[in-house]
């Protein structure tokens, strides 16, 4: 199917649109210019000679084409060879490959390519390889003897060749048979300007070693030989010497013995030497012309080489023995006749040698008759020829091509028809030109040109080319395909292109004008009997065997078949052979006349396409359906166009194809469904399918690309992610490890420090640096100890009044020493206090109260301090009389004393007994013990005393109290401190009131509704002895001196 993909132009001309000559040529040209030298017409291969080595051959390509079916790859000769070989091997069909085309169009190359392909793909093994090798090596040998340089082709095959390669059931080659047709033997004695003789002559002279040359009595220089006496002796790019070696080698491989090779070369040399036999015109005395050998040495040498008496040879060359039933007549040959005879001998020897070589090769490669075999025939035969002057050779060649065309048309049509039948598709008849009539014109057994020619050759009487032409003109005067100057239909009287001695045949490929000159001669192909007998007589085994008719005993007069008859029968055999096989066509085309690469001459190609009937070919092919394909590959190719068949199709191939085409809604006329193939009528439909496919492929490619890209990115991303995770895990791990190591190191360091610190702590004592501290500590402790112990032993007395305390021995103990002193003192006080009895406590409390009230305020206070408070100064306990004075007053008497009462009116004093109880102060007149004044403590408002040593005090009473009406009291007591202290306490106990005791020198006392101001004055010290003097100053003032 690559047929269409990336194809330059169309790869199959069946698909050409429109189907005309011009587009066909254009298509071929386009492809040729793009080095696409192969193009199909269905299964026919057109091959253009590239005139250059293209890189499309070799094992790589063989392998490729071996694996694909015909249309799957670009058109190629390998594809065709592959189809043929596979059909042979797998379907057991004998094949023939018909390679046709002009000289130089590439037929021989094509046949070699086919053979090399088949050799490469068919079975392997030692035996097989040796057969293959023999088959392949037959080429160089045949080419050496059968090819020559012509103007058109440096390696032109000058014979037709048909080679049957035979295979066993497995497809391994067994051997083969080669048939050769019509060697161009005239070349042996004469070549056109710019052409050469057969390669072998040049190869022999250039390649043989000196020894061999001498043995063959040859000279190396080609110009020495008359038959090679042409300007061209070398061909560019052809190495005759090395080719000679290859030929020798090939002959050995094929199985030629040393002797045989030697003999072949001897016969070859003989031909060269014959050419050098110079003849002389020796007219005899009687006037008859005769000939002779100019230089006897050449003949001598020939005679020695082939073991023949030189005289005999000379005689054979220069005379002729005519044999009738009764007698033998020897006539001498004139110069021209002798030359003709010599050249005829040379040509005959050479062409027989060639036949012998072909037979010898066949002997080597032939297959045992018992084996069942399959056959592949390869026909490499000259194509249709139109030269300027066309002779007998062109006539037979064109006849052969006409026959091949017939085969082609019949087989192609037959094949087409059979295919339709096989596939169950109705067959529509195709109009085509049937060239049977032309074939008939030539080959008809009685009325054919060849038959006429034979008849003329055999006819007694004067026979010449012109009698032959006359006969033709007469017989075919009304034939539609025969023309000559005299036939009615031609109206050629004034046609200058046709000479008088010419006739013209309208071949299928064009009209060709033949010149009848030497038709008779060439058809007769006679060799004088003397010469063949002489050759037979030679002692050279090979040469002898080449001339079996020379046996003198075999004197039959029966003529050998004419060249034309021989050719006709071999063509007939060939045709029979081809008809029995499946044909494969290779149509070779020569793009230009100059063997130039890249040059495309439209006219030249146009002529060849006409000869080859390519357009006709396409028409036949397209008569029914232009395109056909097996369901499976078709479905495989187009199923992507159908919704139900893409991406998966599980049904049958045919159903699949129907589905796809149904979905595309193509017209039903365009399609036919055969049993195994789908047929498409017009190329347009196929192109439409192709275009659809191309677009769809683009779509799919985009899809695939999309998915692929997605996949690639995804995997890339996943990879990156994985990598990232891996990296970060490694990184984290690494970081943590580092961190851990750092922590561990730190921990170890800290541990070490701590341990060190601990150890140092434990061992510090052993450190010298600690000693000072310890010592200082120790010293400090010991002085402290000494200080404290010394203090203990020297404690001052425990008397609380003793406040002495030793000084601190060091200044640093000063604070501690003061503290200790304080502590000690406090301790002493506490001990003292703890030892006091409750009574003493009571007494001291009173003393304390007194101190609070009077200390620093009253001058008599310091004297009162050491004197204990006695309370009862009257002896109240032991005096019941006095106890009565107490009256009904509650509680014990707190104080009992004698006081003086100052009379406020006059300042006189009178004694009174004062009793202080818990609630009252009782004043009793000492004389009149009944008269007493009871004053409730709650009514005592204030007490006033002086700051002097005297005992005067006033009791100021509340104004509302009952006693108050009598006024306040001004009293003097010797124990004024004790009395007032006890009164203060009693008032406090009784009324929770602090009695106001004011120390003053001026105060007032109420007296009978009025008040008297009292002024106390300090008298001279010691005067009064405790006695005071009151002096009334005015009614309202009383001055007291103390
Ligand atoms: N396929 C090819 N590739 C390269 N060169 C080719 C090819 N076919 C032919 N030629 C060239 O063209 C020349 C003539 O080819 P050949 O096969 O001898 O022609 P024919 O046999 O038709 O006369 C060859 O010698 C070769 O140089
Ligand atoms: Mg050839």
Describe this protein's structure:
There is one protein chain. The chain is an alpha+beta fold. The protein is built from 31 helices and 31 strands. The strands form 8 sheets. Strands 23-22-21-20-26-25-24-27 form an 8-stranded mixed beta sheet, with helices on one face. The protein has a 7-stranded mixed beta sheet with strand order 1-2-16-3-12-6-7, with helices on both faces. A 4-stranded mixed beta sheet has the order 28-29-31-30, with no helix packed on it. Strand 4 and strand 5 (156-157) form a beta hairpin. It starts with 20 loop residues before the first helix and ends with a strand. The model has no long low-confidence stretch (mean pLDDT 86). Adenosine-5'-diphosphate (ADP) is lined by residues 49-51, 53-54, 101, 103-109, 153-157, 588.
List descriptors:
1042 residues; alpha+beta; seven-stranded mixed sheet; 46% helix; 16% strand; binds magnesium ion
Structure described in brief:
This protein is α+β, with helices and mostly antiparallel strands. 46% of the residues lie in helices and 16% in strands.
User: How big a fraction of the residues is strand?
Assistant: 15-25%
Gross morphology is rod-shaped
Strand order of the largest sheet: 23-22-21-20-26-25-24-27
Quickly count the helices.
31
Oligomer: single chain
Largest sheet: 8 strands, mixed
Ligand types: adenosine-5'-diphosphate, magnesium ion
**Radius of gyration, rounded?**
83 Å
Helix content: 40-55%
């Amino acid at each position: 199917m690559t047929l269409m993909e990336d194809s330059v132009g169309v790869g199959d001309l069946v698909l050409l649109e429109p189907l005309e000559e011009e587009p066909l040529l254009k298509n071929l040209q386009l492809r040729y210019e793009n080095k696409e030298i192969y193009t199909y017409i269905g299964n026919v291969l057109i091959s253009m000679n590239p005139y250059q080595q293209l890189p499309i051959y070799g094992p790589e390509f063989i392998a490729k084409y071996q694996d694909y079916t015909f249309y799957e790859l670009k058109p190629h000769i390998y594809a065709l060879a592959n189809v043929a070989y596979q059909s042979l091997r797998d379907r057991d069909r004998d094949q023939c490959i018909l390679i046709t085309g002009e000289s130089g169009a590439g037929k021989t190359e094509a046949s070699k390519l086919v053979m090399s392909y088949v050799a490469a793909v068919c079975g392997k093994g030692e035996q097989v390889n040796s057969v293959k090798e023999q088959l392949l090596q037959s080429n160089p040998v045949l080419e050496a003897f059968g090819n020559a340089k012509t103007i058109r082709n440096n390696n032109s095959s000058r014979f037709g060749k048909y080679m049957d390669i035979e295979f066993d059931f497995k497809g391994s080659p067994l051997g083969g048979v080669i048939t050769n047709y019509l060697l161009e033997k005239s070349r042996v004695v004469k070549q056109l300007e710019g052409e050469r003789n057969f390669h072998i002559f040049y190869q022999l002279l250039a390649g043989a070693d000196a020894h061999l040359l001498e043995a063959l009595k040859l000279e190396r220089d080609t110009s020495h030989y008359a038959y090679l006496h042409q300007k061209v002796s070398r061909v560019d790019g052809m190495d005759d010497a090395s080719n000679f070696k290859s030929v020798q080698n090939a002959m050995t491989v094929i199985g030629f013995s040393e002797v045989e090779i030697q003999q072949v070369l001897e016969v070859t040399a003989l031909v060269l030497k014959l050419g050098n036999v110079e003849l002389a015109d020796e007219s005899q005395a009687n006037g008859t012309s005769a000939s002779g050998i100019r230089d006897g040495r050449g003949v001598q040498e020939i005679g020695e080489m082939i073991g023949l008496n030189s005289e005999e040879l000379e005689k054979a060359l220069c005379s002729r023995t005519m044999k009738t039933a009764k007698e033998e007549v020897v006539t001498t040959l004139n110069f021209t006749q002798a030359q003709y005879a010599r050249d005829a001998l040379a040509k005959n020897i050479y062409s027989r040698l060639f036949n012998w070589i072909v037979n010898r090769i066949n002997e080597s490669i032939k297959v045992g008759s018992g084996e069942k075999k399959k056959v592949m025939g390869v026909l490499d035969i000259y194509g249709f020829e139109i030269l300027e002057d066309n002779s007998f050779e062109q006539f037979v060649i064109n006849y052969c091509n006409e026959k091949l065309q017939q085969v082609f048309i019949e087989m192609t049509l037959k094949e087409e028809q059979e295919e339709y039948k096989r596939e169950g598709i109705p067959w529509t008849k195709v109009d085509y030109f049937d060239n049977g009539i032309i074939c008939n014109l030539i080959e008809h057994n009685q009325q054919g040109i060849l038959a006429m020619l034979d008849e003329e050759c055999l006819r007694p009487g004067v026979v010449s080319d012109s009698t032959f032409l006359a006969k033709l003109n007469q017989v075919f005067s009304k034939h539609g395909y025969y023309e000559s100057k005299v036939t009615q239909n031609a109206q050629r009287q004034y046609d200058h292109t046709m000479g008088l001695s010419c006739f013209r045949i309208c071949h299928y490929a064009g009209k060709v004008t033949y010149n009848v000159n030497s038709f008779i001669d060439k058809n007769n192909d006679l060799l004088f009997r003397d010469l063949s007998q002489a050759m037979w007589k030679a002692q050279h085994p090979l040469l002898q065997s080449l001339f079996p008719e020379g046996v003198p005993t075999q004197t039959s007069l029966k003529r050998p078949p004419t060249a034309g008859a021989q050719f006709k029968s071999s063509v007939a055999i060939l045709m029979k052979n081809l008809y029995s096989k499946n044909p494969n066509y290779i149509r070779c085309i020569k793009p230009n006349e100059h063997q130039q690469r890249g040059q495309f001459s439209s006219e030249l190609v146009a002529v060849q396409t006409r000869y080859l009937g390519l357009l006709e070919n396409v028409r036949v092919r397209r008569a029914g359906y232009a395109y056909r394909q097996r369901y499976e590959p078709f479905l495989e190719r187009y199923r992507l166009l159908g919704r139900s068949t893409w991406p998966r199709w599980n049904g049958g191939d045919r159903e699949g194809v129907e589905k796809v085409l149904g979905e595309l809604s193509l017209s039903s006329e365009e399609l036919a469904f055969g049993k195994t193939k789908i047929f498409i009528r017009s190329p347009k439909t196929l192109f439409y399918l192709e275009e659809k496919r191309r677009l769809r492929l683009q779509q799919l490619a985009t899809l695939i690309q999309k998915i692929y890209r997605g996949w690639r990115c995804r995997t890339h991303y996943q990879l990156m992610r994985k990598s990232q995770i891996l990296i970060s895990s490694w990184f984290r791990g690494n970081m943590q490890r580092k961190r851990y190591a750092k922590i561990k190191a730190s921990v170890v360091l800290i541990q070490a420090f701590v341990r060190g610190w601990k150890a140092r702590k434990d061992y510090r004592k052993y450190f010298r640096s600690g000693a000072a501290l310890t010592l200082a500590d120790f010293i400090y402790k010991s002085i402290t100890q000494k200080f404290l112990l010394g203090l203990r032993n020297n404690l001052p007395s425990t008397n609380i009044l003793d406040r002495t305390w030793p000084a601190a021995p060091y200044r640093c103990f000063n604070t501690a020493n003061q503290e200790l002193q304080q502590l000690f003192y406090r301790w002493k006080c506490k001990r003292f206090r703890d030892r006091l009895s409750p009574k003493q406590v009571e007494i001291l409390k009173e003393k304390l109260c007194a101190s609070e009230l009077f200390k620093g305020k009253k001058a008599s206070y310091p004297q009162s301090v050491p004197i204990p408070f006695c309370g009862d100064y009257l002896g109240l306990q032991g005096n019941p009389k006095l106890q009565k004075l107490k009256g009904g007053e509650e509680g014990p008497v707190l104080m009992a004393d004698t006081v003086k009462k100052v009379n406020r009116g006059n300042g006189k004093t009178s004694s009174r007994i004062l009793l202080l109880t818990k609630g009252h102060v009782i004043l009793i007149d000492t004389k009149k013990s009944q008269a007493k004044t009871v004053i409730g403590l709650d009514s005592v408002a204030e007490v006033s005393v002086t700051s002097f040593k005297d005992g005067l005090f006033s009791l100021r009473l509340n104004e509302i109290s009952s006693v108050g009406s009598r006024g306040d009291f001004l009293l003097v007591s010797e124990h004024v401190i004790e009395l007032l202290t006890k009164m203060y306490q009693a008032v406090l106990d009784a009324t929770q009131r602090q009695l106001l005791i004011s120390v003053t020198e001026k105060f007032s006392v109420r007296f009978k509704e009025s008040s008297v101001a009292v002024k106390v004055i300090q008298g001279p010290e010691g005067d009064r002895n405790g006695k005071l003097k009151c002096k009334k100053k005015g009614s309202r003032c009383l001055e007291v001196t103390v």
